[in-house]
């Protein structure tokens, strides 16, 4: 396991403070606040530790305040319901006495039933695609005036590896590009056979690349200095178990943007074509033409 992935796994191993009360730490991924996927992943860990013999099937979260990377996050779990088949939990992520995220999660016993899913789109296999580390060199060469702060964000090592199906340069976004995005991703090294860990890491990774998809038709990106960008909410449905240390395809589209908000949907498929999760998110996409600060 690489140091970056080991660090992320340790982040998800929350400290137990009391019954239903947990504490976690944060890492700087180059943004102005705590990465939303980290808070969702840790909240899933907190909720899962209060449920036995049931798997999560959905979560619905609202990002309420930017997270402070220098302060711990306390996760308070409310055990709302334990029925014969389903359990419901509410999780509040708290910093400085205020909630930064509020999440509901539902768990279900293992149960058989009718099954179907949309087929995985036909895309090149990940082995045939250029690793993103190599793509970045081409991207940087095309934008020699790129601020060093953006270079630093894009080149820092991550616990998740990405291979985009399209090699389009996000530093030179195209006007009226189609609001679609397809990316293979996986953990950068093998992980233990712990289903809870793979589910929580999937929740973590599901927050990457969504708002970028909604920005594509408008010739903007996360790095456009005239944009204020942030996740507003996040919903995730777990359909089938999957290993996040094997390649997963994230197939995303953005059906609408309006009111300084962009809506994005995503389907996550395993390597063998099974639909393992569905995602929906709305993000803030506020145009600020007078802004001068670089968004990282």
Written description of the protein model:
By secondary structure, the chain is of the alpha+beta class. It is built from 6 helices and 12 strands. The chain has a 12-stranded antiparallel sheet with strand order 1-2-4-5-6-3-9-12-11-10-8-7. Strand 5 and strand 6 form a beta hairpin. Helix 2 runs antiparallel to helix 5. It is globular, with a radius of gyration of 19 Å.
Low-confidence residue ranges = none
Largest sheet: 12 strands, antiparallel
The average pLDDT value, as a whole number, equals 92
Structural class: alpha+beta
- Share of β-strand residues: 35-45%
Query: Order of SSEs, N→C?
Result: HEEHEEEEHHEEHHEEEE
What percentage of residues falls in helices of 4 or more residues? 10-25%
Could you tell me the radius of gyration in angstroms?
Answer: 19 Å
Basic shape: globular
Side-by-side strand order of the widest sheet: 1-2-4-5-6-3-9-12-11-10-8-7
- Individual helix count: 6
The first-to-last residue Cα distance is 27 Å
């Amino acid at each position: 396991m690489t140091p970056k992935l080991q660090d992320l796994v340790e982040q998800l191993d929350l400290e137990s403070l009391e019954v239903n009360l947990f504490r976690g730490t944060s890492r700087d991924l180059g943004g102005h606040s705590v990465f939303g996927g980290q808070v969702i992943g840790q909240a899933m860990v907190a909720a899962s530790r209060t449920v036995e013999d049931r798997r999560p099937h959905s979560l619905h979260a609202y990002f309420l305040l930017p997270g402070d990377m220098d302060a711990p996050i306390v996760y308070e779990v409310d055990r709302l319901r334990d029925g014969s088949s389903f359990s419901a939990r509410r999780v509040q992520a708290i910093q400085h006495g205020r909630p930064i995220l509020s999440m509901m999660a539902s768990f279900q016993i293992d149960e058989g039933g009718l099954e179907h899913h949309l087929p995985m789109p036909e895309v090149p296999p990940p082995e045939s695609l250029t690793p993103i580390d190599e793509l970045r060199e081409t991207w940087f060469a095309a934008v020699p005036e790129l601020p060093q702060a953006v270079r630093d964000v894009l080149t820092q090592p991550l616990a998740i590896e990405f291979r985009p199906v399209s090699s389009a340069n996000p530093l030179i976004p195209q006007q009226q590009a189609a609001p679609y995005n397809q990316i293979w991703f996986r953990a950068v090294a093998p992980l233990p056979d712990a289903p809870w860990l793979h589910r929580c890491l999937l929740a973590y990774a599901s927050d990457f690349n969504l708002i970028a998809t909604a920005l594509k038709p408008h010739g903007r990106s996360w790095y456009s200095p005239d944009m204020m960008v942030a996740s507003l909410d996040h919903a995730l449905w777990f359909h089938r178990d999957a290993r996040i240390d094997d390649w997963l395809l994230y197939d995303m589209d953005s059906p609408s943007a309006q009111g300084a908000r962009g809506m994005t949907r995503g389907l996550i498929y395993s390597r063998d074509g099974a639909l393992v999760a569905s995602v929906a998110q709305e993000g803030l996409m506020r145009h600020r033409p007078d802004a001068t600060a670089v968004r990282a």
